[in-house]
Amino acid sequence: MYVPHSEDNEEHDAGIETSENTPDPVMKKPVLLSIVAGSLLVIFAGTGTWWYFFRDSADLAVVTPKQPTAEAPADGDGNDVPGSLPEPNAEAFSRMTNSSDGEYTVETSERDSTYIPLASSTQDEGTMELVMPATETSEYQLPPSPVSDDETYSIGDMNGAYTLTDEDGQAGTVANVDNELSIGVGTGTESGGRLPNLPGFNEPAPFLAPATLDAEGSLGDSSSPDTPGRFQLEGKQLPMLAIEKHAPSEVQVNRTAAFTTTVKNVGTVAAHRVTVTDFIPRGTTLDSTTPASTQGVDGALVWSLGTLQPGEEAIVSMKLIPRQEGDIGSVAMVNFQAEASVRTISTRPQLVLQQSAAEQVLIGQDITIAVTVSNPGSGDATSVVLEADIPIELRHAAGSELEFPIGTLRAGETRQLKLKLHAASAGQVLFPVVARGDGQLLTRNEIAFEVIAPELQVNIQGPRIRYLDRPATHTVKVGNTGTATAYNISLVMQLPRALKFVSTDHHGRYEPQQHSVYWQLEELPSNVLDAVTITTIPMEVGNHIMKLDGKADLGISDRFEHAMRVESVPQLSFTIADKADPIEEGSDTTYEIRVINKGTRTATNVLVVAGLPPQMRPIDGSGPTDAKVDGQQIIFAPLDRLAPEAEVVYHVQVRGIKAGDHVIRVQIISDDTRVPVAKEESTRVYADN
User: Does residue 381 carry a pLDDT above 50?
Assistant: First the structure.
């Protein structure tokens, strides 16, 4: 601790001259002139230096330590901007006393300053409380502060010097010319140390509630660095620290002296992780530091001050013992970090698709599908597009691939569009719609419905072979195998010319000019079968085709063809008659046999056989073929062909040998009639005696 020298010191050398026994010194004229010339030189040099560095900085407000005067007392009643730190005098140093734990404390109650240091004696360890300045709050104005982030402030041991920074974190030292202070520019700044005008920001009030420091000296916060910080950290952060170093005006070798460094936050926001770094001056040894410091890798003394709120100051000191004469001093540096935060809201847009349509649509008609796209998420969905692939059962004028841009779909917004499609073919339809958007948004929705349609099926059932002139009855069937009712059904049967129309039912109408038969049904429900009949007579031999056409509304139709073969058959008919009847015993008679083919086809291998009873004797036979008598029979050779409607005559001559009524039997056989056809004729034979 530095203690001013006392004239009453008991160890004072009696040989030292005092004011009572020493004559007043007389200053020599050359020496006086040298002092005056040196003072003028210093004044002009300082003025030139000041003008050089700040000639273009019209808006820069430089605050220098202000000496108390009668007009502006040091108790802070004036209108000066707070921030100038008064230089401790010898009396202030004498008020520094050792605490019970061996460290130095400053009695702030007697400190000649408008700012009261942090009161930590009544607070928990690690807790700092900001105290209002002695001046009026309305008069409290901090100088504009540039942005600083972990910047280093340096100061020499010259009285009244401290450091400012610009927006780029580059420092310049402002000094008072009268106190032999200098202004310098930190690394990376332009020569002259000019600082830009700083914009104002809506910052929180400089006097905050008591804040708790964490283990690193920062404001405690429940949030981690990877989460948004406090709202006070949002916006532009402008912390700025002023550093000022004090030392006795004179120290003596081997006598303890205290060097103090005052750091004050003159910015508008808190400065975090504040550290003060100083070096043991050359030519001195360190006795102790207050508060306790740590040693850096380069041997520097480091004080960790934690967080300084706006208007808050902290004082560190080191107790030194000079070991040699000369200028003694060191450069102290202050480092700090500024905290800034920003927050935004992360939202999640969503896309939901819904479709609605009728469960069934009749073929040939249009169906309207209502497509609803909504965003139930928390953010806007952008570049939303609807896509649809048209199934083969449906048609759209724009083609089979549709795309409809929605654009931006805001959170909670719902849009609906109606899509009109034409039902082209029957069947079950699965209609898909896809919605896409930015951010890999994708959703799909499908709707199922049925395209219904009636379907006609016509058929003819009946004989496929008929003989000429034999009636043929056919059944005409019409059925609806579709999924919808068929309306206005018309049936038309086209008859071949070889068939003669006879009759029909169900109010069928025959048109002779078209040789067709017509039927009409108003409706035919799904899965219902109906039938009508038609009767014809074959008039010509050959294959004849009956054609049936069915038609209904919506362009539904069906056709069926039925083939019938008409054949002809030989039909042999014969007669037998005797020319003389009765006859006498022993006389002859002749039988005439006429064979006619009444059929429609030639008869082949016609065989005629006449059989006689025992009372009659066969004599001879004649006809288209040779006759042969074989016992009681006369057999004619087979006739190869007998055309339709052709007739042949056979004669059989017999003799009656015994009286009585006797019967002759004639049989005809052909290739078409394998069973003989027989006829008989009786003749009476009488005796004349």
Answer: yes
Looking at residue 233, its pLDDT comes to 76
Stretch 301-330: mean pLDDT: 92
**Span 512-528, pLDDT tens digits:** 999 999 999 999 999 99
139 vs 307 pLDDT, higher one: 307
pLDDT of residue 135: 37
| Cα maximum dimension of the chain | 238
Same fold, 352-450 and 572-686: yes
Peptide bond into 291 cis (omega under 30): yes
φ, ψ of residue 122 to 5 degrees: the values are: -100, 5
Give yes or no for a contact between 1 and 103, defined as CB atoms under 8 angstroms apart: no
Structural contact between residues 135 and 82, judged by C-beta atoms closer than 8 angstroms? yes
DSSP of 123-170: S-TTEE-----SS-GGG--PPP----SS-EEEE-SSTT-EEEE-TTS-
Q: In whole angstroms, what is the distance from residue 545 CA to residue 13 CA?
A: 161
Report in angstroms the alpha-carbon separations of 276 from 128, 302, 313, 317, 495: 17, 6, 12, 10, 121
According to CATH, the superfamily of the domain at 572-686 is: Immunoglobulins (2.60.40.10)
Helices (H), 392-517: none
HSE-CB at 434 with a 13 A cutoff on CA atoms is 12
Distance in angstroms (rounded) separating the CA atoms of residues 244 and 259? 11
The amino acid that residue 388 corresponds to is: A
Question: Is residue 552 within 8 Å of residue 454, measured between CB atoms?
Answer: yes
Closest Cα to residue 399, out of 427, 369, 421? 421
For residues 314-334, give the mean pLDDT. 92
Indicate the DSSP class of residue 401: E
Please give the Cα distance from 306 to 189 (Å, whole number): 28
Band of residue 47 on the pLDDT scale cut at 50, 70, 90: low
366 Cβ contact partners less than 8 Å away, ≥ 6 residues apart: 420, 421, 422, 423
Looking only at the bridges linking them, the beta strands covering 647-656 and 639-642 are unpaired
Token pair recorded at residue 290: 């207050």
Of 279, 295, 356, 283, nearest to 322 by C-alpha is 283
Q: Where are the domains of the chain?
A: 33-65+86-337, 352-450, 456-567, 572-686
Tell me which architecture the domain covering 352-450 has in CATH: Sandwich (2.60)
Give the single-character DSSP code of 201: -
How many percent of the chain have pLDDT more than 70? 69
Three-state secondary structure call for residue 337: strand
Rounded-to-integer distance, Cα 185 and Cα 191, Å: 7
Class of domain 33-65+86-337 (CATH, top level):
mainly beta
Distance from the first to the final alpha carbon of the chain: 207
Distance CA 275, CA 336 (A): 6
Three-state secondary structure call for residue 70: coil
For residue 472, the model assigns a pLDDT of: 93
Instruction: Reply yes or no on whether the pLDDT at 146 is more than 80.
Output: no
As a whole number of angstroms, the distance between CA 322 and CA 253 comes to: 5
Residue 64: name the closest of 50, 52, 75 by CA: 50
CB atoms within 10 A of CB 88: 22
pLDDT tens for residues 66-119? 343 433 333 433 333 333 334 444 443 333 333 333 333 334 344 333 333 333
Residue 133 tokens read as 């300045």
CATH of domain 456-567: 2.60.40.10
Q: How do residues 226-246 score in pLDDT, each as one tens digit?
A: 777 777 777 777 788 999 999
- Lowest-confidence region among 148-152, 251-255, 565-569, 583-587: 148-152
pLDDT score recorded for residue 48: 62
